[in-house]
Amino acid sequence: MTTFPRLASIVLLAGLVAACSSGGGHLPGTAGLTVEQLSARVGCAPRLQAEPGDVRTGHCRTPDGAFSIRTFASRTGRDAWMAAATGPHLAGDLWTVLSRRDVLGLLQERLGGDLYPHEG
């Protein structure tokens, strides 16, 4: 008799974990996008910069302002970059955008992501 309540609890807990672990500010379909694809979403043809390893960077200028989009092959790479980053940036699953906070706020509407550092 206790098997069903336990099973129901496990299913409920798994659903809560899945809901809480998905990035709150991420738009669907931005995780594996390239610099060019992310840039196209905000109306820019990026000026690409050579980077070592699996990092790609593109520089853009739109009516919103100037910014750099960087993509990473893994979350570990993105997290290492974020740990060393200074200044405001917007971060998705495998990408970051570096610019002024006002520009990032406008880009966030089209890309999703989370603003860092968080303002409290």
From TrEMBL:
Print the keywords alphabetically: Signal
Q: Where does the signal sequence lie?
A: 1-23
Q: Which domain of life is it from?
A: Bacteria
Name of the featured protein: Lipoprotein
Organism this protein belongs to:
Nonomuraea maritima
